[in-house]
Design a protein that fits this description.
11 helices, disordered N terminus, alpha/beta, 434 Repressor (Amino-terminal Domain)
Amino acid sequence: MDYGPSGTRRERAGARVATIGAVAARAGVAEATVSRVLNGGSLVSEVTRRRVQAAIGELSYQPSPIARSLSRGRTMALGVIAPFFVRPSAIERLRGAEAAFTMAGYDTVLYNIGTAEQIPEQFENVSRGRADGILVISVPPPRRAMERLLASGTPVVLVDVRHPGMSQVYTDDVEGGRLATQHLLELGHRRIAFVGDFSENPYGFTSSAHRCAGFQRALQDRTRTHCACDLDRLLDHRCCRLISVSPPGAVSTWLVIP
């Protein structure tokens, strides 16, 4: 590059990327004061704060994410562990989480679980990632991973998973299964089938088993013909007979709760 004696090219480059030092000089304060304003510190007078904010606006200053992370002692990133993140239910949960994280100024780091073998691997990855917090959706953490996370002091929130002593958000799947079945009974249906996931699966999912428990609870005090089977066992001979002899209609209802 050809730099003239006046250094105009360097000056133009400097004008394009303002520094915290330039903001401090424009506002007539120390760089530490600018840093306090950027980080929401309280040890700054309102007059000085406004002067610094005005200088930031005039210079179009953009603080470095890395520098801010170092000054705060945080990575400003949150890890999310989720299975099958291309499926609709996972997408909607991720959409809500990502919107909240972004609004709070955090980046989202996604750890997808596509196979059961990836569960310990991804929990190990999120533990090494130094995230400021971790959101776990639907997948029960392995015992060692949970112990490691608890020992690290990293905030962890579980969604659709339960664990003693952890912050958790979950749906009452037993009551959901009971209410859905009760609704079908009140409509007058007499032959009701439940189709869901395997009650025992390598991922540790429990929602379908809990919904089936609610389904059975609703039928407990009534005489009903029903078939409870796994989604992957839809061709089980009992369900096949039920489907072929009495297809869905006025007196037969299929309760499908995936």
